[in-house]
Amino acid sequence: MGPEAAPVKALMAELDRQVLMFERQWWRYEGSKEQAINDLFQMDATRYYQVLSRLIDTEEALAFDPALVKRLRRQRLARRHQRSARRLEASETEASQR
Q1: Does 60 map to a domain?
Q2: CB 23, CB 15: distance < 8 Å
Q3: Quick check: 60 and 15 in contact, CB under 8 A?
Q4: Which of the residues 39, 44, 67, 70 has an alpha carbon 20 to 30 A from that of 54?
């Protein structure tokens, strides 16, 4: 059997699996999400979200938990649209003040 026949869980790094499992139920942890990230992964929130963003673009993550990964992708896309809309609004406001 080649590596392509290995289960998805075996192909993902342990940290990646832990990040996805945390995203499934982070709200169950007491305190802030940022504190839970620091306690569980010994990384700051910025680094965690970089790891998560990279991770949800992988086929392994999608195979591991399709519903979660699709939800996280939709949320990321919505945030991008919001940021773009704010930038457009700010540039239009700036242009009208000239």
Answers
A1: yes
A2: no
A3: no
A4: 39
